[in-house]
Amino acid sequence: MDFTTLLPALEPRGEWLDSEAELVKLMEQDERWEDEGVDEVDSYEASGVATGAFRTPSGLVVGVRKFRHTEEQKKRGDELVEKYRTEGIELKAPLANIVGPGEDTETVAIYGGYDSEDAAVQDARRIMLRSVINRDVFSQAVGWNAEVVVLARGVDAFTIFRTHPGYRVDATVVEDVLLAYAQYAEAVDALANDLTLYDRMREFPAMTPKIIDAWLRRESAQALAGQARVSLEGALRAFSYQPSMSVADLARSLHTDRGNLSRLISKAAK
């Protein structure tokens, strides 16, 4: 995907602090934060990179940290994948979702000079979104020029980013995977609504608003439908092992055909 029009706007607004600065040394040692009066304002994580906005005695800062898996963690991951494979289950999740975040951590940048918490939080979001895009580690993304919606997966949660005119960035963190895709779809639909408002339609050539509207809504529907299929298959597989009610009662409550539901359960159980 081409994010050429967006990436320049995601550059940090804060001042990069020299690695020898005392504040940088403090931020690298989180065991000192409580005693030194460091409080987290907001933070985000995706695929081995985390950003956060913090209040410190010296002012507001934004930190960027990388997490790398140790050789021991990689070995443990391989062992778990093989263990589940022998049981007929293919683990296709990222290593962080199998063994947890990387234990080898490094603070790679600290930024300061913010005049408000909102400014620091916005920079933490910009840096995180830029990292996700540059490393091509997002799960879903769609948009129009610099207005985009991006879904990124972390160790314990998903983050939905949405950029606005003026390059403000919204971020919503959701733990449940299906709910994350549902909220991603809602954000895409909201973007479609905003782009096709009467005042904005005059910005585009004829017929372009209809293409934008249909394209974004198709993308949101496909993303949600795809994850719903995966989530349903997992839920039906679990149901086949330990049913909580009869298939007939389940079909009746779902207003669906019992035979069709039985076939889906059987397929999921394989």
SSE layout:
Blueprint: E1 15-16, H1 22-27, H2 33-36, E2 39-46, E3 49-56, E4 59-68, H3 71-86, H4 95-99, E5 104-112, H5 117-134, E6 138-144, E7 147-153, E8 158-163, E9 169-174, H6 177-195, H7 198-201, H8 208-241, H9 247-254, H10 258-269
Antiparallel strand pairs: 1-5, 2-3, 3-4, 4-5, 6-7, 7-8, 8-9
Structure characterization notes:
By secondary structure, the chain is an alpha+beta fold. The protein is about 45% helix and about 25% strand. Helix 6 (about 175-195) runs antiparallel to helix 8 and helix 8 packs across helix 10 (about 260-270). The longest helix has about 35 residues, at about 210-240. About 30% of the residues are buried.
Q: Give the percentage of residues in beta strands.
A: 15-25%
- Please tally the β strands and state the result: 9
Shape, please?
Answer: flat
Structural classification: alpha+beta
User: What's the N-to-C terminus distance?
Assistant: 36 Å
Major sheet: arrangement of strands: 1-5-4-3-2
Percent in helix: 40-55%
The sequence of SSEs as H and E is: EHHEEEHHEHEEEEHHHHH
Counting DSSP H or I runs of 4 or more residues, the number of helices is 10
Based on CA atoms alone, the radius of gyration comes out at 22 Å
Q: Major beta sheet, specifics? A: 5 strands, antiparallel
Q: What number is the mean pLDDT?
A: 91
